[in-house]
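Title: Prediction job returns without error message
Component: structure pipeline
Severity: low
Priority: P3
Assignee: unassigned

Description:
Job completed but the reporter wants confirmation the result is attached to the right record. Sequence as submitted:
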Amino acid sequence: MSHMPEPHPKLKALEPMVGRWRLRGRTDGAEEDNISGIAEIAWLPGGFFLSQHVEIDFAGMFQVDGLELIGYEPETDSLASAVYSNVAPVPVPYHWFMEGNELTIKMDAGATMRATLSDDGTTFAGRWQPDPGHENDPGMVAYEFGGSRIG
């Protein structure tokens, strides 16, 4: 019998993010929260990939419905993903990094998210913002956001 592959150990770093989250946020310059939605992160059978499904009302400008698949990428020795959504005609690549309670997600197109998960794992807070030189690229909007576990 052949030896079955096992999930890469780096994937376990994302275990604290698994679950269903209520999202709230505010674009820079807004006087009140104008971003809301739900995100659900779950393991696919076998443990080689995580899926994230989001439904977000982004500042009344558009509704985002997206599916992201996150897995280990040997070429970069990192956690890479692709987002398939109703707001982009092609998959959008990202890279995930989690150390302790600090999560960083880099959008290959030029934006970075940094968030901190609470010690008890029930909330997180962070910020998305364009990387230097990408501030005026289409779709690059800076905003603060947070999440709280549902259930």
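Comment from assignee: result matches the submitted record. The CA atoms of residues 43 and 102 lie 20 Å apart.
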